[in-house]
Amino acid sequence: MLGFFLLVYCLSSATCSEVLIRHRRTWIIDSFEIEEEHPGPFPYKLGTINVSRKYKVFFELTGEGVNEEPKGVLSIHRETGTLYVHKALDYEEKTLLKLKFEARKSDLSSDTRLGVEVNIRDINDNPPRFQKNLYVINVKESLAQGSNLLTVLAYDRDQRGTPNSTFHYEVKSVSPNLPDSQFFTDKSGQISFKGCLNYEVAKRIILLVEAKDHGEVISLSSSTTVVIDVEDGNNHLPIISGQTGTGKVKEDETGSSPLRLHVTDRDSPKTEAWSVKYTIHGDDSDHFSIETDPDTNDGVLTVVKVLDFEKGAQRELSISVENQAPYFSCKVKERTSSGLWKVDTSTDPAAGQPQSIKVVIEVEDVNDPPVFSVTIKEAQLDENAAIGTWVEKVTAVDPDMSYASKFLYKVGHDPAGWVTVDPHTGDITTVKTPDRESPHVIDGLYTVLMLAIDNGNPPMTGTATLQIHVTDQNDNVPQPAVSFVDVCLSDSPTTTNITAFDLDGNPFGGPFTFELLGNVKGKWKLNPTYGYTAGLVKEPNVYAGYHTVDLKISDMQGTFGVYNLSVTVCDCSETPTCRNRQTAGGEAGSGVIGIRLSALWATEHHLDYDPHLYAEEGSCTSLLELDDIISDENSFQDALKDLGPRFNQLASICKLPAIN
Fold it and tell me: Strand pairing of 150-151 and 134-140?
């Protein structure tokens, strides 16, 4: 039944009408109300706008519901001012109609203008609606009671702040029926539970949640489904059920797996509650590791560090096993009428402790190599010491207990073949004369590899390094770097440099003392005469051509060599650095070089050659000249190999190519 009230804010006096016309005032009448979804029949009378006049007026109504959307809802009787409703309205689409009422005189002039507002009264025609029809969540079995599982949300389109749009949530059903769990929801839609979840009882729980409004005439509701998948928790501990494998390992092996442990676990496979981890106890030296086979949950024991039989034939270990997820239990003690239930979630001290097992690994002996008491042995030896000189003694022991421990000493690597070793005592003596200038001596140190080889099957070898510090002797005389020099012709003294070197080390080498021999007054002199390089000064009266100068070079200890230095004097303005002499002097130079290299070759092959002659004749030169002396190609290559170490010493000083 619709109700209406009419309130006229302006009296029907002529004076008031004139004021309305003059100021164009509009008065609002808002006391009309239409109930939404009115069933009819249509049209029905809504009310009457009564404007009392002594003269006849006609009524017009425009605005929403008449000639504006929603059109055709209202109309007004032109003479009586009665309002009629022609069709139903939906509050959710339109809550208020704003219209204009006007009374006109017979001459159609405006008499009265009023604003009319028609309210649409809401009815409870919309139930609460959930945002989703289905919710699916995963929760852990170990989740504590009172925890928020999820929040469901609903909304109601009816008028806000009225019972029609006010609703509450309620869990209407739980499937399956769980004696140790009770689900509930609060006014905000948060769903929680009391008691304990149990994967073994219900892997999946289905809730029907209802949202119901508080409509006074009728109460409407809707529901949603919540699916809870319970993840298995660790409420069953793993039990070691057996072991396989030999339990044996060779002492020199790594990477082998002598043992595999097997476990059983009642929790769901391939979950953290089922997967286990193993821990080794009693392996202080970290010889072992244990990994979990992800498919079988077995524990695979592996040797990662070499074992020593001599330190124990057995290794006793303790291996414990536990799940990756922490152990828990939940039992309902009392179902209280209000609040959360009383539950016991404490871990059983006896059941919650990781299980452990003792295992014994047998270490099998293998033939160990002899071990030297010192792996790097230092010794000292004088250069040019006599053959048979005692150098040092090495000692080794064989750590094996079950294998034969006899072994022999041998020289493993002796680059120049200087030493030998007594196979039984380890005494080392020389078999060659040591030479500190040997290319195998680096910074005065000669290195030999020593071996101790046992008679096991297979035989094993221990190694040690003998570092021999070779004491230098003054067994080399100073030498000039070149056997000839060029000097430019000039009316004033000119100088060329003469560089010397000595294969001996300090204090048997440089700086050197240079001295000219023979009658050189007024012709040649030296400046400076001391150092690694001397200056040969040509006096102005020395003519152009070839000259020979006798040069004496002494080391710091007075040991000297005398050399015939070829000096070419020429006009450098015409032939810079006297290069024109090379054609004439090539053959002679080649002969001198051949003598020197022949001397080197003879010396290396222990032929009858005077080393002092070699020292006097030796100088920096090109190795290619040797091909003029040794015509056979194979012999030439052999000569290169033989001369290599000795020649490279000169080449390094004279900046010549070395022999590989």
Answer: unpaired
- Whole-angstrom distance, CA of residue 594 vs CA of residue 599: 8
Single-letter amino acid, residue 184: F
| Structure-derived torsion over alpha carbons of residues 603, 412, 441, 426, reported in degrees to the nearest 10 | -100
Distances (CA, A) of 119 to 86, 114, 163: 16, 16, 18
Mean of the pLDDT values across residues 95-100? 89
Q: Are 556 and 508 in contact (CB under 8 A)?
A: yes
CATH number of the domain at 408, please: 2.60.40.60
- Residue 466: half-sphere exposure toward Cβ, Cα within 13 Å: 28
What total of structural domains would you count in the chain? 6
Cβ atoms within 10 A of the Cβ of 87, count? 14
Among 338, 364, 390, where does a domain finish? 364
Q: Residues 6 or more apart from 303 whose CB is under 8 A from it?
A: 249, 253, 254, 255, 256, 257, 258, 287, 288
* Residue 620 pLDDT greater than 60, yes or no: no
Q: 223 and 183, same structural domain?
A: yes
Give kind and range of the element (H or E) at residue 647.
helix 633-654
What distances in angstroms separate CA 523 from CA 84, 520, 549, 566, one per listed residue? 150, 5, 10, 14
The encoded tokens of residue 23 equal: 């100021």
Residue in the block written with tokens 């309002």:
83
Over residues 55-74, the pLDDT tens digits come to: 888 889 999 989 999 998 99
| Whether pTM exceeds 0.70 | no
Residue 640's pLDDT is what? Answer: 52
Instruction: Classify strands 560-570 and 484-488 as parallel, antiparallel or unpaired.
Output: parallel
H or E element, residue 300: strand 299-303
Instruction: Give the span between the Cα atoms of 61 and 79, in whole angstroms.
Output: 12
Same domain for 252 and 358: yes
Full domain range(s) for residue 450: 371-471
| Within-domain flag for 326 | yes
Residue 469 in contact with residue 380, Cβ under 8 Å? yes
Triad 15, 21, 22: Cα angle to 5°: 85
Q: Which of 364, 381, 397 is the endpoint of a domain?
A: 364
Among 384-388, 475-479, 546-550, whose mean pLDDT is lowest? 475-479
